[in-house]
Specification:
Pfam family, one: AP_endonuc_2
Number of domains: 1
Organism: Arachnia propionica
Shape: globular
Number of helices: 10
CATH architecture: Alpha-Beta Barrel
Radius of gyration: 18 Å
Strand order of the largest sheet: 8-7-6-5-4-1-12-9
CATH class: Alpha Beta
Keywords: Isomerase
InterPro entries: IolE/XylAMocC-like, Xyl_isomerase-like_sf, Xyl_isomerase-like_TIM-brl
Protein name: Sugar phosphate isomerase/epimerase
Oligomer: single chain
Helix content: 40-55%
Largest sheet: 8 strands, parallel
Order of helices and strands: EEEHEHHEHEHEHEHHEEEHEH
Structural class: alpha/beta
Distance between the termini: 7 Å
CATH topology: TIM Barrel
């Protein structure tokens, strides 16, 4: 396995304010210092990084700044994360425009993976047609990714119409997109992450690892929450997945680099105990 880290911990996630009035310009952003995140992730010993589309877009006009920082830190940009509502026909073309831009940015900076979340919950309630629309949209995301030499994966997320195992089953049947299990979101949505990974072994093409506690709800560094991460890692290995494990932590009440170090130390032990090599 190869170990990577998501830059979200440096600043937490926000959305670009332009998106309030312009859907095509609504990027995810971690509002910390991106270059500091890259440097400190590399210092901990990770070899890959995942970034939000908005943070990669910061360097669109000066790409050498980011590529030089990645090289100096011994990192590669593994994946770019974006998302959309995907169920509203009128704004879908602008959302897909943004997904296409995220794919272009990912390819420009050498990433091979595009990760997407989304599927809005309507105030009036979710309809079966919403899942049809999400499924069709995710197939279009696959096409966009492939046009740029990328592989697209879908990330179930709290607050969307794909939170729990039953909802995930619906979308896995209605789209060909690969599956990015996020261990904490799957558990918080009422599922057993290891069991869910074992249910879709052929679909797992990207992985987000994070821990959490249910009461009071909080995402945590690996090993500090309630998840059975050894069983989760075993399920990932059983699926034949032998690639990037991307550790993610939305925010941390302390030094984000220390959170990254805690998770790496714990994950290395879990992998060693399971006899799984990592680099």
């Amino acid at each position: 396995m190869k170990l990577g880290y998501c830059s979200i911990t440096w600043g937490g996630v926000v959305g670009h304010p332009a998106g309030v009035t312009s859907v095509k310009d609504l990027f995810y952003l971690a509002h910390g210092d991106t270059l500091r995140a890259v440097r400190e992730i590399g210092e901990v010993g990770y070899r890959g990084v995942e970034m939000f589309d908005g943070n990669v877009a910061e360097f669109e006009g000066e790409p050498r700044v980011l590529t030089d920082a990645l090289q100096a830190s011994g990192l590669e940009l593994v994946s770019v994360y974006t998302g959309a509502n995907f169920i509203y026909a009128d704004i879908l073309p602008d959302e897909l425009h943004r997904v296409r831009r995220a794919a272009q940015l990912a390819a420009t900076f050498g990433a091979k993976r595009l990760v997407v979340g989304g599927g809005a919950r309507r105030a009036a309630g979710t309809t079966d047609e919403d899942y049809d629309r999400l499924g069709r949209s995710l197939d279009t995301v696959c096409e966009i990714a492939e046009e740029h030499g990328l592989e697209a994966s879908y990330h179930p997320h709290l607050g969307t119409i794909v939170e729990n195992p039953d909802e995930l089953e619906i979308i896995m049947k209605r789209s060909r997109i690969a599956f990015c299990p996020d261990t904490a979101h799957l558990a918080a949505g009422g599922g057993d992450p290891a069991e869910i990974i074992r249910r879709y072994p052929d679909r797992v093409k990207h992985v987000h690892l994070k821990d959490f506690q249910p009461e009071p709800f909080n995402f945590l560094p690996l090993g500090e929450g309630v998840l059975d991460l050894p069983d989760i890692v075993s399920a990932i290995a059983e699926a034949g997945y032998d690639s990037w494990l991307m550790v993610e932590l939305d925010e941390y009440d302390g030094d984000p680099q220390e959170a990254a170090r805690i998770s790496r130390n714990y994950l290395e032990k879990v992998l060693a105990d399971a006899g799984i090599p990592c680099n």
